Amino acid sequence: MRVTKAQAEQNRAHIVATAARLFRERGYDGVGVAELMAAAGFTHGGFYKHFRSKADLMAEASASGLSQTAARTEGVDPAEFVERYVSREHRDGRGDGCTIAALSGDAARQPADIKTEFAAGIENLLTALQSQSDTPGDADQRATRTMVIDMLAHSVGAVMLSRACPDGSPLADEIIDVCRKEILASLAHYNSDQVAARSSES
To answer: Where in the numbering of this chain does the HTH tetR-type domain appear (predicted)?
Structure first.
């Protein structure tokens, strides 16, 4: 039976979503096309009706996953973001977690188109986080962006470092707990400095 255009689009979206989850769980090289298609409920041969290559799917799946991360961050202030992100639940939930924490190491070794998707995704996430922290004035906005970049880099690094340890090891938990506490303390310090600066100007 001939597949309608709408059904073909749904099938493609399902393949992309499946790939995004599997790539987060196992890395780009950890799952092949045949296994990926089987997980999505399709035959291996059907892959090339949707994508020219695995690299094309990798780029599209990365863009999709990065977009989801930014969307989940809309309306979330930095402290709440850290509480959710630098957590044992996020660390253990690779398949449903952040694409940046799951695949940044892999992306660094991939072609430019995948790096471009990551750069755009990171920028979108920074924008979403900064929108919850912005204060008037160019200098304040630059300071906020610096704070958000620092916070995100430390949060991603904490999750990646914890995941590099054996599952359930005391060190893996210690990294998450220590880093979350320190990042939140840094945020509180930044916020108090901003309040003090505004008070001195008024």
So the answer is: 9-69
Per-residue pLDDT of the chain (202 residues; tens, 9 = 90+): 566 888 888 989 999 999 999 999 999 999 999 999 999 999 888 898 889 999 999 999 999 999 999 888 888 899 999 999 999 999 999 999 999 999 999 999 999 999 999 999 999 999 999 887 655 556 678 888 999 999 999 999 999 999 999 988 999 999 999 999 999 999 998 887 676 666 666 5
The residue ranges of every structural domain in the chain are 63-201
Q: Is-contact 84 9, C-beta < 8 A?
A: no
Q: Could you tell me the two tokens for 59?
A: 């780029």
CA pair distance 122, 65, nearest whole angstrom: 11
Query: Between 3.40.50.2300, 1.10.357.10, 3.30.420.240, 3.40.50.150, what CATH number should domain 63-201 receive?
Result: 1.10.357.10
Enter the tokens of residue 173.
Answer: 């938990």
